[in-house]
Amino acid sequence: MSRSTVTATRPQIALQTYLDALLQEATLELEQSVSLDEFEAAVLEEQVRDARLASPVQAEPRVEAPVAVAAPEPEVVARAEAPLVVPVAAPVQVVVEPVAELGVPSAAVVPPSAALLADGRPAWAAESFECLLFDVAGLTLAVPLICLGSIYPLDGTELTPLFGQPDWFLGILPSQAGNLKVLDTARWVMPDRYRDDFRAGLQYVISVEGYEWGLAVHQVSRSIRLDPNEVKWRSQRSQRPWLAGTVIEHMCALLDVSALAELIASGAIKRMRLN
Which residues share a beta bridge with 232? Predict the structure, then answer.
């Protein structure tokens, strides 16, 4: 080798040595700055890339981290799947038990006739008869027991109203004999001096034998036996046909239930309102 050649390559050797030293320092700094986890991740990425290049037909399945999804609330799911139906219990109808039975059993009773005898007496007054005394808004009334069925308590009992009924209809009372249509008795016996507060304090309902209604009263007094001669009978009943007469000794009105029933059935209450 000539001297010129050695001289020419000496600077190159020095430069190469310097560059090798810089590269060695840079590699050392890179190794110190890269963590082991990052290095492994890089190696894994290179392996995955090599596998894809080797098998281009079969794509590597994509691995995704599971995503936590909050479960919907049970109430929301129930409303979405089907509407929540809350069963509503049907109201239980409370049957009112009677406090007293009047007359004979209903199966053996024939409703008394409204036909009048020659002197104006009803057919049931041909002989002595039993009557029940009760009070309606301070007025004492007597009704033959043969016309009555049972006495039901009304205090604390709620009547079932019916729409479209006249003002003398108080409502329905469920009883062992069926649903009783309760009448405001005071509107019939004293229409001229009736007041709305007469409805307050009604204590009992007296069912009428042979009919689906009962009389609302304030008090029940006692039963008495009457002789037909003890009654001042009305021979003319063009007005208030339900008033059979007056019991002189007890100073009370004797009620003819059959005549009252016919009056209600015929719809004469409308004509009474007009009058």
Answer: 246
Task: Output the pTM of the full model.
Answer: 0.60
d(CA 70, CA 81) in angstroms, rounded, equals: 18
Output the DSSP codes for 55-106: -SSSPPPPP-PPPP-PPPPHHHHHHHHS------PPPPPPPBPPSEE-SS-G
Report whether 128 contacts 228 (CB < 8 A): yes
Output the average pLDDT for the chain: 75
Q: In sequence order, which ranges of the chain are alpha helices (DSSP H)?
A: 3-33, 36-54, 74-81, 185-189, 257-266, 268-274
How many other CB atoms are found less than 10 A from the CB of residue 102? 20
* No. of helices (H) and no. of strands (E), the chain: 6, 12
CA–CA separation, 267 vs 177, rounded Å?
A: 25
Alpha-carbon torsion, ordered 159, 164, 166, 172, to 10 deg:
-20
Q: Tell me which of 196 and 51 has the higher pLDDT.
A: 196
Angle at 228 between CA 238 and CA 126, to 5 degrees: 85
Output the six-digit token pair for 121: 């007496």
The answer to whether 186 and 201 are in contact (CB under 8 A) is no
Nearest one of 121, 132, 124 to 229, comparing CA atoms: 121
State how far the Cα of 257 lies from the Cα of 242, in Å rounded to an integer. Answer: 7
